[in-house]
From TrEMBL:
InterPro entries: MeTrfase_TRM5/TYW2, SAM-dependent_MTases_sf, TRM5-TYW2-like_MTfase, TRM5/TYW2-like_N, Trm5a/b_N
BP-aspect Gene Ontology terms: tRNA N1-guanine methylation
Any one GO molecular-function label of the UniProt entry: tRNA methyltransferase activity
Domain SAM-dependent methyltransferase TRM5/TYW2-type: from-to ranges: 79-333
A Pfam entry, by short name: TYW2_N_2
Organism lineage: Archaea, Methanobacteriati, Methanobacteriota, Stenosarchaea group, Halobacteria
Official protein name in the record: Class I SAM-dependent methyltransferase family protein
GO cellular component: cytoplasm
Transmembrane keyword on record: no
Coiled coil: none
Keywords assigned by UniProt, alphabetized: Cytoplasm, Methyltransferase, S-adenosyl-L-methionine, Transferase, tRNA processing
Superkingdom, natural source: Archaea
Length: 333
């Protein structure tokens, strides 16, 4: 059946899909079609979509409706999916098991359901998990908590029990990495498994990723290989404050995604910064003044630099009256 579709290049497909979904324009009753490197995304309102995108009509197949956990439970449960692992945040173990069984009995491609058992803790930024249920046919050749997450065309192998990873920051990571230009030298001071490092390297940057967690560095190296950018990535297991002196004045771009304590590492960031460097500084502050503390800390640390705040960006709400924010700042001598 011919349906109105937004036509975009494959490279722009994921961003466009997210934007259309956020605007309530993506028609999820029909499949997205790929043909000759072009994506056709069905839309519900061609006039509204046509204000920003090219709209064409073409034959697209209707989805065979899958059975969801909500269909089985009679209510819409709260969970996240990371690859083939579903993540719960339930205090009631009985409810957690009920939801887990529904997820596994649904048509979702999930092999395990796990429940958060602690907050993120320690210098290695990991948390405890409870394995609630596993699929009968789940392979036993890898840990239950290990999975492959795909994001904006890249894939990340990771084990949630050994590393920190948040799928909720995908759009923010894409916002930052899309700013990178070929030939840049970039440092991710708290690199994890590489969700900033890999896309920056794919855009032609030479990237150093530093992390205290040996498992995260192991996965970072593997992810650089599997995404074809290992030749542009250096992964270092260490405290970035000890690494900074080896890269004094080297970085054209620095990512500081450690929002609870990034200010403790600003001296290292200034050591890393070249004469013209963009800093992406993440912070969590009260909504009354979400950007002021970070901006003041950066200006105090960056003696000898002109400090130009390029963007004051709210990433998400973190807690009641608290915001997770990012300051994109240019440091120039």
């Amino acid at each position: 059946m011919d349906r109105p579709c937004v036509r975009v290049s494959r490279e722009a497909g994921e961003r466009t899909r997210q934007d259309l979904a956020a605007a309530g324009l993506l028609d999820d009753e029909y499949e997205i079609v790929v043909a000759d490197g072009t994506l056709y995304l069905p839309v519900t309102d061609p006039d509204a979509a046509g204000e920003s995108y090219e709209v064409v009509y073409r034959d697209v197949p209707a989805y065979d409706r899958q059975q969801t956990p909500a269909d089985l439970l009679g209510f819409d449960p709260s969970y996240e999916r990371l690859g083939d692992v579903a993540i719960l945040d339930e205090d009631d173990s009985e409810r957690a098991h009920e939801i887990a069984e529904a997820i596994l009995d649904s048509d979702l491609p999930v092999r395990a359901v796990i429940d958060r058992a602690s907050k993120v803790k320690g210098d290695l930024r990991v948390r405890d998990w409870t394995v609630v249920a596993t699929a009968d046919d789940a392979a036993d050749d890898r840990p239950v908590t290990e999975t492959v997450h795909r994001e904006y065309g890249f894939e990340y192998l990771l084990d949630l029990s050994r590393v920190y990873f948040s799928p909720r920051l995908a759009t923010e990571r894409h916002r930052v990495t899309e700013q990178v230009e070929a030939g840049e030298q970039a440092v991710d001071m708290f690199a994890g498994v590489g969700p900033f490092v890999i896309p920056m390297a794919a855009r032609g940057a030479t990237v150093v990723g530093v992390d205290l967690n040996p498992a995260a560095v192991e996965y970072l190296r593997e992810n650089a290989r599997r995404n074809g950018v290992a030749d542009r990535v250096t992964a270092i297991e260490d405290d970035v404050r000890d690494v900074a002196v080896d890269y004094d004045g080297w970085a054209d771009r620095i990512v500081m995604n450690l929002p609870h304590s990034a200010d403790d590492f600003l001296d290292a960031a200034v050591t890393l910064a070249s004469d013209d460097c963009v800093l992406h500084y993440y912070d969590i502050q009260h909504e009354d003044d979400p950007f002021g503390p970070g901006e003041r800390a950066i200006r105090a640390a960056a003696a000898g630099y002109d400090v130009d705040v390029l963007t004051r960006h709210v990433v998400r709400s973190y807690a009641p009256h608290e915001l997770n924010v990012c300051l994109d700042v240019r440091l120039s001598r």
